[in-house]
Amino acid sequence: MTPEALPRFRAENFRDMLRHGLITVAFCCFIATALAISGNGSWESQMVYSLSIGTICWLVIDAGRLLLSGNKEVLWPHGLSGYGLIALGITVGFLGGNAIGDAWVGAPPFEFHNLAARRMTSTIVITLVATIGMCFFFFSLGKSKHMQSQLDLAKRNATEARLKLLETQLEPHMLFNTLANLRVLITLDPPRAVAMLDRLNSYLRVTLSGSRTLAHPLSAEFDRLGDYLELMSVRMGERLRYTLDLPDELRDIPVPPLLLQPLVENSIRHGLEPKVEGGEIAVRARRNGDRLVIEVNDTGVGLDAALPSEDGSNSGFGLEQVRERLATVFGAQSEMRLAAAPAGGTCATLSFPLPAAAP
Fold first, then answer.
1. From CA 20, how far away is CA 33, in angstroms rounded?
2. CA-based Rg of the chain, rounded to a whole angstrom?
3. How many Å apart are CA 308 and CA 343, to the nearest integer?
4. Do the beta carbons of residue 278 and residue 238 sit within 8 Å?
5. Mind listing the domains of the chain with CATH numbers?
6. pTM (2 decimals)?
7. What is the pLDDT of residues 220-250, one digit of tens each?
8. d(Cα 304, Cα 287) in Å, to the nearest integer?
9. Which H/E stretch holds residue 216?
10. Residue 90: how many CB atoms within 10 A of its CB?
């Protein structure tokens, strides 16, 4: 729903009206106390007059702005209608509030006509200054809220654009690596190359059939990772073994797409492939307090043995993209670590906050 189509009488606007009313009441209490201290009547009578005038002004102006502004995010009428609304609120509030005050103290209605000129002028000035000041204050609050919402929207759009850019960089990277492996396999083992091509077609069909999203369930990320590992298993055969461990309570946690595949791809390319007997990859997700921790362990050659390759594929492109995606979504609350496993191999660990609604 666009901002222009937002209903003017939604709950958020009524909460804002109530907040404005409470601020108005507090301000009226302050004015009544100040007048009573200065000797302009009892505190009780000043409180009745002040609250009556201020409350009526608030109701007329705050309700009127919703009626006149239309379905807009900045709920304040522009031009003459805005000034006219303030003038109407001041007039109705002044007359109605004084009538209520006169009735409370037992004076004839509209007794203010008989007041001394100095006292009459001060009453009008206080009403004008207080009402205009409160209107300006509430207008500034609304404008600030609108500007903050626009800023949040711009930040959200920038984050979405950055995530999509990073994803478009990751997918070709994986595809080019797979096609390079397929090219070698066509020469060495054509039947396995055909099987690998079939797996690649299936993987791309699943990947490209759905619309791109900024986040999907962790279970979808593990399913996609399973497809990728099956694809790699065709080429590596028994040299590749893998385990995927995802607890049921974490299946619906939203994560950015293509978060884990670069880590697994790095483990295969720089950990298991250089090892004659291959090895095993284990991907596990677990909860640690209010954080989600995902570990990618391999039994490959380890960090020290992963020397730069001739084609420059050990440049860490995929790992840097994962770091950037985490930083874009979770900021400084995310963490990624690479460490040597005690029994050999490498352990990549991702950690970031769980959503507030996570059980």
1. 20
2. 34
3. 23
4. yes
5. 3-152 (no CATH), 189-353 (3.30.565.10)
6. 0.53
7. 889 888 888 888 887 788 889 999 999 999 9
8. 30
9. strand 216-217
10. 22
